[in-house]
Design goal:
Layout: H1 2-23, E1 29-32, E2 50-51, H2 59-65, E3 72-86, H3 87-97, E4 103-106, E5 111-116, H4 123-128, E6 132-142, E7 147-148, E8 152-153, E9 155-158, H5 173-178
Antiparallel strand pairs: 1-2, 1-3, 3-5, 3-6, 4-5, 4-9, 7-8
Helix pairs in contact: 1-2
The structure holds zinc ion.
The site of zinc ion has 7 residues, from loops.
Length: about 180
């Protein structure tokens, strides 16, 4: 009984989080996250988190996807790039960008995730910083709030609500004056 209630509550929370992303124009996709050697997809012996469905933005679709299965949430990188860098770059970049760039942190290996307008930083530059660039509609990141075995519980440091749900747009002083 109590377990049912907990499960229902967990589902409600996931659905509400998914709806909030969708309502702000951020597609969300159901994500299976293996924990303690078993994957909620129950299909195979998964090691890595993986998508279990298409990205959705329509609230009705979101409600259907998160009605029965407590899938975690993935954010496909269709309308932003996610630049995933180690702490030595991430902490400094965060200090410079402050609250202008949606920023998350994956605590286990101290990785910082920056959400930028697609194409903001060339992939080679990200790689040179020991980083990973997530880009394009086929790529994705786990939504902050997700607890990953490898990365720990990812959390927002700068919530996208603070930037009007817009990824960071690079500007220099000239853009600032003439924009
Ligand atoms: Zn699986």
């Amino acid at each position: 009984m109590f377990e049912d209630w907990l499960r229902r509550r967990h589902l409600d929370t996931l659905r509400e989080r998914a709806l909030r992303y969708a309502a702000n124009g951020w597609p969300v996709a159901p994500l299976a996250v293996p924990r303690d050697g078993s994957c909620p997809c129950r299909l195979r012996d998964c090691v890595e988190p993986h998508l279990v469905g298409e990205a959705v933005t329509d609230p009705v679709q979101v409600a259907i996807v998160w009605d029965r299965q407590p899938w975690d949430l993935a954010l496909p990188t269709s309308s932003f790039d996610v630049v995933d860098v180690p702490a030595r770059f991430g902490a400094l970049l965060n200090q410079l960008l402050k609250t202008t760039c949606p920023t998350a942190m994956a605590p286990a290996h101290r990785r910082w995730w920056f959400f930028l307008v697609p194409g903001s930083i060339p992939a080679a530059q990200v790689r040179a910083a020991d980083g990973v660039l997530h880009s394009g509609p086929d790529d994705w990141v786990a939504a902050p709030g997700t607890n990953l075995e490898y990365d720990g519980r990812v959390r927002w440091l700068v919530h996208p609500g603070l930037t009007g749900w817009r990824p960071y747009q690079r500007r220099d002083a000239v853009d600032e004056v003439f924009f």
